Amino acid sequence: MRAIVINQEASMPEHVDKKMPELQEGQVMLNIRASSMNHRDVWITKGLYPGIVSGATMGSDGCGTWQGEDYVINPGLDWGLNQNFQDSRFRVLGVPDDGTFADYIAIDKKYLYLKPSHLTVTQAAALPLAGVTAYRALFSRAGLRQGEKVLVTGIGGGVALMAFQFALALGCTVVVTSGDAAKITKAMKMGAVGGYDYKDTNWTKDLVTDFGGVDVVIDGACGPGFSGLIRVCQPGGRIAFYGATAGQIGSVNPQQVFWKQLSILGSTMGSESDFGQMIDFVSKHHIVPVIDCVLPLDNYRDGFSRMAEGKQFGKIVFSH
Amino acid sequence: MRAIVINQEASMPEHVDKKMPELQEGQVMLNIRASSMNHRDVWITKGLYPGIVSGATMGSDGCGTWQGEDYVINPGLDWGLNQNFQDSRFRVLGVPDDGTFADYIAIDKKYLYLKPSHLTVTQAAALPLAGVTAYRALFSRAGLRQGEKVLVTGIGGGVALMAFQFALALGCTVVVTSGDAAKITKAMKMGAVGGYDYKDTNWTKDLVTDFGGVDVVIDGACGPGFSGLIRVCQPGGRIAFYGATAGQIGSVNPQQVFWKQLSILGSTMGSESDFGQMIDFVSKHHIVPVIDCVLPLDNYRDGFSRMAEGKQFGKIVFSH
Fold it and tell me: With contacts defined as CB-CB under 8 Å, which chain A residues touch B243?
């Protein structure tokens, strides 16, 4: 079968002909019909992940067919039973476990969820990792409530867009940031009420002037701009972050945090419960993931290049 | 009546003869029999608080008598109904509102709580502000559960000691830090299972080696050492801080925070609900606040000097 595998000595993964996986107890053989990329895939090719094994199939997100039904895969393996944090055995599907950029995957049946009926296979393949990460950050961690004001930073990324769509679906007022005016324009068309260029030194003041601040921030950047997120929070605000593309959190003013009773919440991936709730939420609200482009799996190199450049708005999907 | 009032042109408050307060609607006249100091009182004398009015009576904590019954005062005025954060009208009793360092106070009856019967008037006067601040940080914010491991930093301060006693009473394993070996020794005698000098560069490693880390941290310092608090947290850990005696939070590693699913929680004072629950908890567990010394109110200068030096272990109480 086809498989796109990591080669630690090359800057791009390799297309190989791999033998079919063998089924272990509890596993089923899913015929993968679409998969999608995450930043994680690019980081793995750069060697920026622990536990990389050359020859392992890449890809965390996938949607496929088993016994005539279409399923999406929960890529969070062995989270464990504690909702508050993942077990030490926890890992994300796709390196070192063989992932979704292949024709078939042998996967434990408990990680399969029926594809929401309003989504195509291609759309559903865009959902898993970004969806569960956004869901946990927004609901399980930040406890978003209907009608609250939400800031989603770095709009255009998979998790950011999913958080944005979830918050809109709940009936929240959502503002966004980006370094790219075109991405802000797109978000405004989708329902954002405000958009700010985070490179503009006045953006936090402008947001407070325009909307009086926000109740919840969903961030994947951290970095020196983190103190601005604290400034735009209203009392009782929650900042949940799931990544740190801009690096270390710079100096933080603790008085602002305790006087406003803020909560700063680290969040990554999600539990099986988070995943199931996310699928239900997407089904209930007929949410369709934003897709940047659909490429044939054989053209995976174009997908890796596009994501590495950061030009995408939404998910990069491979059709198999 | 006697009153100790702020004089913005002097480094010490003044002892004055003040006319009796006039009762407003809903207020009762409490004969204050004991009061206690907080860091806030020292900061006010240094001009480090907004809204300071020369001539206002100082003091946030007090226990007194009205119609033959002894009451402690909830010093958190006009918190409002939202449990998540205080109303914009919120303020702490004692400058600009006339406080407890006086023979009498006119106070809204809703801020009076019957003195827990296991406490003397002197002990009860040590309870309010430190007690409610510790209770909110530990329970309402960090959600401490029985059997968890807790780190309380800067043991010796009023809030730190109260948090320490509350966590012990709940059946938690508690470790402490201090820059003063004598304070650590005292805490160990009270039930701490470990004590670390935060000036020792290896203290976080030692704590992890000794106890495997902690579930909850209660901190009042922040400052450059904050990253050490993140290091000692186990997955799912919560750091609640109520002060920042060491200044700005330095650079923070976001990967540690999101990978461990940590929560960093600002907390200040507490709601009326927090205060009522704190009084009930203290009564149920027969907690007796740690008192550093009891001074006659007329010797208030000694109290202010002692607190400014930071030598105290427990609360500095004035008997009236």
Answer: 254, 258
Residues 124-153 of A with CB under 8 A from B: 141
With a CB cutoff of 8 Å and minimum separation 6, the contacts of B246 are B221, B222, B223, B224, B225
User: Which H or E run contains A276?
Assistant: helix A272-284
Asked if B240 contacts B141 with a C-beta cutoff of 8 angstroms, the reply is yes
CA distance B256 to chain A (A): 8
Contacts of B141 in chain A (CB under 8 A): 261, 263
Rounded to the nearest angstrom, the gap between the alpha carbon of residue B262 and the centroid of all alpha carbons in its chain is: 24
Q: What is the pLDDT of residues B209-247, one digit of tens each?
A: 999 999 999 999 999 999 999 999 999 999 999 999 999
A314 contacts: CB under 8 Å, gap ≥ 6: A126, A156, A158, A161, A289, A290, A291, A292
Mapping DSSP to helix (H, G, I), strand (E, B) and coil, where does residue A7 land?
coil
Other CB atoms within a 10 A radius of the CB of residue A288 amount to 16
Instruction: Reply yes or no: is the peptide bond before residue B96 cis, omega within 30 of 0.
Output: yes
Closest approach of B249 to chain A, Cα-based (Å): 5
Comparing CB atoms, the residue among A85, A252, A263 nearest residue B260 is A85
* Cα A7 to Cα A248: distance, rounded to the nearest angstrom: 29
In A, which residues are within 8 Å of B245 by CB distance?
none
φ, ψ for residue B219, nearest 5 deg: -130, 145
Work out whether strand B76-77 and strand B91-92 pair parallel, antiparallel, or are unpaired. Answer: antiparallel
At residue A52 the predicted structure's pLDDT band, cuts being 50, 70 and 90, is: confident
Which one of A82, A244, A256 has the shortest CB-CB distance to B254? A244
Three-class secondary structure of residue B173 per DSSP:
strand
Task: Report the residue count for chain A.
Answer: 320
> CA triplet B135, B137, B140: central angle to 5 degrees?
75
The backbone torsions φ and ψ at residue B227, rounded to the nearest 5 degrees and listed phi first, read -60, -30
Please return the burial class of A195, using the count of CB atoms within 10 Å of its CB with bins 0-12, 13-18 and 19+: buried
Q: Which fold has domain A2-127+289-319?
A: Quinone Oxidoreductase; Chain A, domain 1 (3.90.180)
Collapsing DSSP to helix, strand or coil, B205 comes out as: helix
Tell me the CA distances in angstroms from A21 to A4, A64, A98, one per residue in order: 14, 15, 9
B317 with B36: CB under 8 angstroms?
A: yes
- What three-state secondary structure class fits A173? strand
Q: What is the pTM of this model?
A: 0.96
Same fold across B2-127+289-319 and B132-266: yes
Cα A233 to Cα A261: distance, rounded to the nearest angstrom:
10
- pLDDT tens-place string over residues B54-107: 999 999 999 999 999 999 999 999 999 999 999 999 999 999 999 999 999 999
Q: Which CATH class is domain A132-266?
A: alpha beta
Pairwise CB contact (< 8 Å): A263 & B259: no
**Numbers of helices and strands, H then E, in chain B:** 10, 17
Q: Could you tell me if A214 and A237 are in contact, meaning their C-beta atoms sit under 8 angstroms apart?
A: yes
Structure-token pair, residue B193: 């299972």
Contact B203, B197 (CB under 8 A): yes
* Domain extents in chain B: 2-127+289-319, 132-266
> With an 8 Å Cβ cutoff, is B89 touching chain A?
no
Reported as a single tens digit per residue, the pLDDT across A125-153 is 999 999 999 999 999 999 999 999 999 99
Chain B residues inside the 8 Å CB shell of A241: 254, 257-258
